[in-house]
Specification:
The chain is mainly alpha-helical. It contains 10 helices and no strands. The protein has a single domain, classed as MFS general substrate transporter like domains (Growth Hormone, Chain: A). It is globular and about 55 Å long.
Length: about 220
Amino acid sequence: MLTSPAAWLIFGQQFFRAAGYAFFASWFATYLMQTRGVSTAQSGIFTAMPLIATVLGSMIGGYTSDAILKATGSLAWSRKGVAGISLTFCALLVFSAFFVADPTTAVVVISTGAFLAALAAPCGYTVTMDMGGNHVASVFSTMNMLGNFGAGLTPWIVPQFKSWIEQSPRLLEYCDGNAWNAVLLLFTAMYVGGAICWFLISTKGTVFDQSFLRRKVADETVG
């Protein structure tokens, strides 16, 4: 499994998606207060919006992916297509929020992005069943573990990244003098990373069929 590019791409998309989601559950309220000037009460309401959007997106994503699989019979379209496209548009929306001054509008834009990111969630779990072969539990649990690493690192990475931006006057200038704006761009990059992982995944066979080690053994056997 660990010598399979497909496996690592599946793990990678989970890492990036989970890291992106963790921003809403950790630093999003602080981001809103320090970049949009909202009150503590308002930040609580606004923070709930992307979380609600995530719940809705996760449910709709499963139906969407299954409907496309039933209509096309294609794992590529129903899994990597749905996930890759939704994460791409999520990244575009999160990035566009950088240029939105009104806090309510910005949160609606970001929440729409969170909804799209959540559409990819069911694809991430079902692709482990599609491509896990006889070892679905191993593929699924490893993917989930690395996703937890991504989510767990987010609360630590955000202040470190923010501090790094603040120590660079030129970078800080690009962020309108507020390093929190750069944090939004960081999470844009995370969703872009998740989308790239999906677009690069080959859904042909299992992750073990795509293992470099298995191919090497097969070649030596034939030779």
